[in-house]
Write a structure and sequence with these properties.
This protein is α+β, with helices and mostly antiparallel strands and 200 residues long. The protein has one domain. Helices cover 22% and strands 32% of the residues. The protein contains three helices and ten strands. Strand 2 and strand 3 (86-92) form a beta hairpin. The longest helix has 26 residues, at 2-27. The termini are far apart. Mean pLDDT is 86; it is low at 2-29.
Amino acid sequence: MLASKRTLLMNLTSSILLVLFLISASTGATSIQSLSFKQLSQNAELVFEGEVSEVQSELKSNKSSIVTLITFDVRDVILGNWSEPTITLEFLGGTVEGQTMRIQALVYPQLGEHGVYFVESTHQQMVNPLLGWAQGHFKVKNDEMATSSGQMISSLNEGQVSPLGTLSKGPANGVQVKGKSSQSGVTLSDFKRAILQARD
């Protein structure tokens, strides 16, 4: 009995270490390719405006990892095909019964958050389903757009495509954030229009 418990614990530990190794290897220790705003618009399977209505973490059935399931009420499908009133996206990591699995640089949409989300894939399991991680995650504040870190956006253009291997150091190329000036920001409707223009 003790031997079987020890074997189970060793298998679980090995599985978790393997998952963490694969994450590190595939993302360069969570280093993400720099994308342009045009690349976000052209390469996302789905872009939608929504609000986070539920956040729930659970242990995967094989007990090798923890995932966080985030459900959004879909307000508007900007690009792609989605007919359901809600969508649930799976992010790696989270906390279950005191056990925490953290993924460096992964910003989870928070309960009640209103935003625009560029989804890389609606059907593949990924560390982060949002294209370019934080680069494809935008918040709406008083009808103006902000980055996932809360910086208000002052202007948008398609952005220059970075050479392969260039790592992201902030928002997608072409997304300009406000300085300390009181310049006006990019509205939600202007943001949606820019997405559609960049897709063409």
